[in-house]
Amino acid sequence: LVAFALVLGVNANAQTEDNPWSVTIGANAVDFASAGNNYVKTNELQNDAPVFNEFFNVEDQWNIVPSISSLSVARYMGDGVSLDVSASYNKITQFGNKYAANGVPLQANDVNDETYVGLDLGVNYHLNTLYNGMQWLDPYVRVNGGMNWIAGYNSMVAGGGLGVNFWFSDNIALKVQSVYKNNFQEELENPVMFQQPNYFQHTAGLTFAFGGKDTDGDGIFDKNDACPEVAGLEAFNGCPDTDGDGIEDAKDACPEVAGVAEYNGCADTDGDGVADPNDNCVDVPGLKELNGCPDTDKDGITDAKDGCPKQAGPAANNGCPWADKDGDSVLDKDDQCPDVKGTVANNGCPEVTKEVQKMLNDYAKTILFDTGKASIKQQSATVLGDIVAILKQYTNAKFTIDGHTDSVGSATLNQKLSSNRANSVMNYLTSHGVDASRLTARGYGEDRPIDTNKTRAGRANNRRVEVNLVK
């Protein structure tokens, strides 16, 4: 039994504090010879037998009942101390040896099945409180006191002894104990029996410990369980690790999915350094700054939201590069004339050159009006169409329509006439698709002649309309 306990008990712990109550059921043996008792015969003086004499002579000297013959109930009090109450029953068939005067044993002293009953109160000190490790090995020292009845005679006894528990598990142990009991009644009235019946009592039995509370049934008692209502692991003081990743649930940001400590118990499925709960693209490696999503063209826009995932472009254009449809090196977003090739200096629009300016005024000089009126003659429609076509090429350029007269007539009338003619030309142009916001009509009368007013040819040159670029 001891060898069996050594094999099974190496992983068990004495849980006396956690299971404070225990019951031991077993057998007992009463040994008188080892305690130095004599057999007394009338008128014969005998020497005392030596103590521990034939201590291990089980066959000749131990009184054993071949059945369950002892019962004890114990309570662990703390700090290595336990108390127990025990009862035992036996049949006495032998009482030491008969001794000669010189102390030589003559023969075993047999008696006739005298009844033995013992009731004891014991105080035990468990020595495993003095060392760490091997808590399955639980030796103890004991002081003992009580009453016994032998052959119908009762007396008080007291003594002490040693014992050891071999714990198979937290609840079951093999108990072996040997106690010396000193009998305080020096002589019995029965002269056939013996005097000073001191003896050793040996017991062996199975101990069943109980009384500890483990609400969640995880093998960790509530007083030591940080999570007493949820089954857990000893490594985490009774708290659970649902996903089995070695991180207790209370400290696990993903308690139901196995992860790593680096990510507080969460996983990183795609291995991009972003934990799955924070990864918007769990199955595709990406960038931390984009919450775990990829950015193939590295334009700062995730592929999923990038209209052109393989071409870098700004967020304002959905991740695509800005177009330059007219190929003038001015991006369409900045190009005031995205469909017409222009210059960077003119915001992507074509610039009005001196040649174009001259062409406009050459056309404008040929516009004919009814004499003394602002109405345009029909034959001027062609040249006006040419002017419209030119203005539409320069969509961001602004122009003034300037009217001039010769000096015939009053200055007031000439001023009014020049203004009206300029407005007539402007109205024609706007009616044919030129944006009115680009045009301004002005009349200068006879104030800005370009030729002499003394000749017919000179006066004809002074009567004109000009289309001038606003710079």
Describe this structure in words.
This protein has 471 residues and is α+β, with helices and mostly antiparallel strands. Helices cover 13% and strands 28% of the residues. α3 (354-364) runs antiparallel to α4. It is rod-shaped.
Question: Main β-sheet, in a few words?
Answer: 8 strands, antiparallel, barrel
Order of strands across the main sheet: 1-3-4-5-6-7-8-9
The value of Rg in angstroms is: 61 Å
Mean pLDDT: 86
Count, helices: 6
- Our estimate of the beta-strand percent is 25-35%
Order of H and E elements: HEHEEEEEEEEHHEHEHE
Which structural class do the helices and strands define?
A: alpha+beta
Number of strands: 12
**Unreliable segments of 5+ consecutive residues:** 39-47, 190-194
| Proportion of residues in helical segments | 10-25%
Terminal CA distance reads 116 Å
Keywords:
rod-shaped, alpha+beta, 471 residues, 3-stranded mixed beta sheet, 6 helices
How would you summarize what this structure contains?
With 471 residues, the chain is α+β, with helices and mostly antiparallel strands. Helices cover 13% and strands 28% of the residues. Strands 1-3-4-5-6-7-8-9 form an 8-stranded antiparallel barrel. Strands 11-10-12 form a 3-stranded mixed sheet.
